[in-house]
Every structure is written in C-alpha cells, then in structure tokens.
Design goal:
alpha/beta
C-alpha cells in the first residue's frame, strides 16, 4: 500500500493547485464548457468502471456495519449517475460569471472605474459519503475558474478516485490543467489537518457534511470557510392566513423529505390560528408518522383533539432532527415569533405563512437568516430551485456568500480601472 507523509503530500498537491489556478483564471468559457460536456460523456462511457469502484466501497461499508441509510447515500445508482451527467451539462449551460465587468463609470479625473468578477483561486472541499459531490464540486469550481482540492469520505475513496480520473481526463482534453481538480488519495485524517491549515495554497475551505465535521473544522481550521453548522429552520403561521395554503406548505416543509438541512424543524403558530390550524396539520403529521413535540399550549390543543404528541423539552427548540420529528409552539404575536426565531434559528432558512403584507415585510426585514421566505416551503432553499443550476453548499455566514453557493458564490469582485494616460493631481 502506498503511504503518504501528510505535510509533503499537502505541499505537492497545494503547489500544483496554485499553478493550476492561474491556468483556470485565463481559461475561456468554451474550454470550460468543453470540459464539462466531456465529463458528462465520460461518466456514461465509464459507467462500468464507476460501478466496479462503487461496489468495492459498498462492500467495505456493509462489512464495517455502517447503517443502511449511510450505505444508501454511498451508492452510485443509475439514477445518481444520471443526475451527475445532467448536473455537468446544466452547469455548462449556465452563464460564465468570470471576467464580467459591472458598474463601469467615468470619474472626473478621466479614468473609468468598474468591478470585475474573478475566481476565488484554490478551493478545498471536504465532504462525506456521497460520491456525486465529487462531480458537483468539480463542475462548479471548473466553470467558475477555480482550482479545487477534494477530500471525500474514506468510505467512498474508490468511487471518488474513479470520478476524479474522469474529471482530470476531461480537463486535459480541453487544454486545461489536469491539476485544477485533485483528489486527496488517502483516508489519513492527518492530511485533513494539513489541508485546513494550508493558507499558502488554499484560499477558501468548503465543508459539506455532518455537525461533527463542521464543528471540528470550526475549531481547527485557519483557512477561511464557507459553511453552515445546523439547519434549524422555522415555519411561522401568522394570525391572518389562508389556512388551506398554510396546511399544505407546513406539511411539505416537514414531510416532503425529512432529512435535508432545509426541512422545517420547528412550527410556530399564532394563537389566533391554533385551535383551527393545529388539528388539521396535526392529523396530517400523525398519518405520516411524524412525532410532534409540543409546548404546553400546542400540546393541549393536539391531545384534546386526539392527536398524539409529547411535551417538548428545552433542547427540542435547538435541535436539527433530520428525521420525522417536529417541534411545535404557540406564540401570541409576530414579535414573539421573530424573537423565538432569533433565539433558536441557525440562520439557515425561516418562513412566514401570511396574508398580511405588513407582517411579510417585517419578517423579511427582521429575520436574520440566509434564506427568508413568504408563503413557501423551506424545502425550496436549494441552489437548483433558486436557478443556480447547482450548489456547492449552503452558507449561513454573513460575509462573502450567503445561502446556496453557486457559480457567483465561488467568485469575488475586484476593482478595475481604465485610463487614457491620466495621472493624479
């Protein structure tokens, strides 16, 4: 078995990525799109190689006793492969943000000042279990003109190697540096420690995984990060609301899929609607096997109507369940709802269901989350649904990128100045 010395490996990969980032910064849109289209073609041509590599990972995962849900996320099925192909082609079809000059305006001195969108440079992506992230991250970084260092989970190492080879071959065939996309070839956790502190080589770190991964990186990383820790999302049913709409949206926000980070974890209901709304949504949740953890007022309404619920404990309001469980509380006003969200939200996605324009406007202005919604399911907080084509992650940070991070979030702006021989007086 090949062994790697962590510092030496990081230096080799980092230097190659830095060189490749300069080549990617000057890459044409045509070259980038050619590489993306070729990735899609090679995914189909080498499907047997991908399946064989994935089978090794799946066999090892089952032998290690990993949970069936985890093994399921690891599998590269025909559907997953098709989504990777479609994703690469969709990104190829998106406008290229790199090089666009905006806000160009003349100054009294005669110079013209504008802002140009440019790549971030070298991105490091750390992720778990899902091999499709290898293609998603590579494609987004490629189109945005960045080099990327990929560190997937050890459980998907063979699958990720097969996918990374496809990307490298497609880059080389398009005349782009193959080192623009590199996969760390070892599961050694010490290499992660080197990667997250490699400020000489890496410009931004994007983790995509569970709370334990993000917590570790927040504690140890010195490279700037684009991240979110939790997805504690709220849906608030206002005093004046179309009840049919509210029932449909609150149901969808929790049960369309319960595991993603944009699923609603806490339902807030205005006291004026509690007696009517809670029995309706409660019966739906009960039929779908959703456990309801309710505050005293919500619990009283639900149990009186024969709907099973249990008392909420303080920890429930700060828990991301990623499961068929929801916390429910009754509030007396919009102010109380906003205060509750301010205390407990993870700043990911929060929604108001209301017929009041004033309530909607206040909610949009005062709720400090990366996505704030009016009369829509929190499940829409997604790069594809926002028209970004795909996302490399969701950011709950306030600086640089916020919300789903697509091509534009993988670039920044620099000032550009056009003169005609002027000098400052």
């Amino acid at each position: 078995m090949t062994t790697f010395e962590p510092q030496a490996l990081m230096r080799t990969i980092g230097e190659a990525a830095r060189r490749a980032s300069r080549g990617m910064a000057r890459a044409t849109t045509a070259q980038k799109n050619q590489a993306l289209e070729h990735i899609a073609e090679l995914l189909l041509e080498r499907c047997d190689d991908i399946a064989a590599a994935n089978a090794l990972d799946l066999e090892r995962a089952r032998a290690s006793g990993l949970a069936p849900s985890f093994v399921d996320r690891l599998a590269v099925t025909e559907k997953v492969l098709g989504q990777m192909v479609e994703g690469a082609r969709q990104i190829a079809g998106l406008p290229d943000p790199v090089g666009a000059v905006s806000d160009l305006r003349p100054m009294p001195s005669g110079i013209e000042v504008g802002r140009m969108r440019v790549p971030l440079g070298v991105v490091a992506m750390i992720y778990e279990s899902r091999p499709n992230v290898t293609i998603d991250a590579a494609a987004l970084c490629l189109k945005s003109g960045n080099a990327v260092i990929l560190r997937g989970g050890s459980e998907a190492l063979e699958s990720n190697r097969a996918l990374a080879r496809i990307v490298s071959d497609a880059l080389a065939d398009a005349g782009l540096p193959a080192a623009a996309v590199q996969l760390i070839p070892t599961a050694d956790r010490a290499v992660v420690g080197e990667l997250i502190r490699a400020r000489d080589y890496v410009d931004v770190l994007i983790p995509r995984g569970g709370k334990s991964l993000i917590s570790r990186l927040m504690a140890e990383a010195t490279v700037p990060m684009i991240k979110h820790l939790n997805g504690i999302c709220h849906t608030y049913v206002d005093a004046v609301v179309d009840l049919d709409m509210a029932v449909f949206v609150a149901d969808n926000a929790k049960t369309q899929r319960t595991s993603p980070c944009n699923a609603t974890e806490t339902l807030l209901v205005h006291a004026a609607q509690a007696e009517v709304f809670l029995p309706r949504i409660g019966r739906i949740y009960a039929e779908k096997g959703v456990e309801m953890r309710a505050d005293p007022r919500a619990l009283e309404v639900l149990t009186r109507c024969g709907i099973p619920a249990v008392p909420a404990v303080p920890e429930d309001w700060d828990t991301e369940y990623n499961a068929p469980i929801i916390s429910i509380a009754v509030v007396d006003s919009l102010d109380d709802a906003i205060d509750f969200i301010d205390r407990h939200s993870s700043r990911h996605t929060d929604a108001i269901l209301t017929d009041s324009c004033r309530s909607a406007e206040r909610f949009l202005r005062e709720v400090d989350s990366s996505s704030v919604m009016v009369n829509a399911s929190t499940r829409f907080a997604d790069g594809f649904e926002y028209g970004l084509g795909a996302e490399i992650g969701i950011s709950t940070d306030r600086l640089h990128a916020r919300g789903p991070v697509g091509l534009e979030g993988l670039t920044s702006l620099k000032y550009v100045v056009f003169g005609h021989g002027e000098g400052r007086r």
